[in-house]
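Hi there,

I know you've been waiting on this one. I reran it after we fixed the sequence typo, so this is the corrected version. Both the input and the resulting structure follow.
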Amino acid sequence: MASHSQRGHALGLDLRHAQVVALSTGTKCINGEYLSDQGQVVNDCHAEVTARRALLRFLYSQLELFLSKRPEDWEESIFVRHKECGYRLRDNVHFHMYISTSPCGDGRLNSPYEITTDLHSSRHLMRKHRSHLRTKIESGEGTVPVRCRGPVQTWDGVLQGEQLITMSCTDKITRWNILGLQGALLSHFVEPVYLHSVTVGSLRHTGHLGRVLNQRLERLGPLPATHRRNQPLLSGLSSAEYQQPGKASCVSVNWTLGDAQLEVVNTSTGRRRESGTPSRLCKHTLFTRWNRLYRKLGIQVSGSTDHQLMYCEAKMAARPYQTVKQQWFRSLQETGLGTWVKKPPEQEQFLLSV
């Protein structure tokens, strides 16, 4: 697999004692015709995104230790009980992300420090859209700026051939710096989990990336006590050895601590390459793990009754998370950086198979 697209997460502050907990590769997104209304595909196979989904599997495994009746198993977890029935990270646990090239989007496109040769001729065209939200190109590479009022993606439109729109990795990392890596579902159980540091292998200097990430936070306004404007430590390795020319691979590989083997995903279909079955990173698989914790840990989802929750209902019920997300979306629009483009809602309106 092309090492230039490898991403990883590690634990700990002293990197000599760090432990790698998630790894991934990949540079492409799904073809719109393969979208799933049962949550059985991975839409975005860029390595930053799949590494974060691989990290979610690790976070679930750490919470699942609390399903044991043995207190010594609880002591193995990176989480500790907090408040009524929630959990938070232990004080000595930190997450570090390594990215071998700058994340796609504005963090890469307008960087004067990236070790590359193909962007200088078009630099004057980029200034107009500096710091804007950008979207990935379906089945290809590169990004384009979003319009001031982003398009509304519809299920039938995408299935009939309209290009599927996915936000850039720069934009998603900025989102994680506000909402946390854990996402909406795990917010029912844990306080936000933030990156402590980000290292970019190909960068000589992190000034531009830092400005991009911080500019998105400027007009956010006050946040609830649970959230913060996270500003991870940034560093670059100035390494050109990962710049391998040639066509990008159409597969994405993922691994999480505890896995016996790698999983290889076809980026065009968002499913396992060999069998065509759902990836262990897909929404349906992660929702299955969430539902087990939800039933056994006794966490109450606000507004829920005894009926089975749809995936979208479980996410929307994480109210503090959703409130901060909408606050951030508004601040992006107010600063003229663009509108976050959402996938068609039908892809999240599924129940788990009984």
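Quick highlight: Residues 18-115+123-299+308-348 form one domain.

Best,
R. S.
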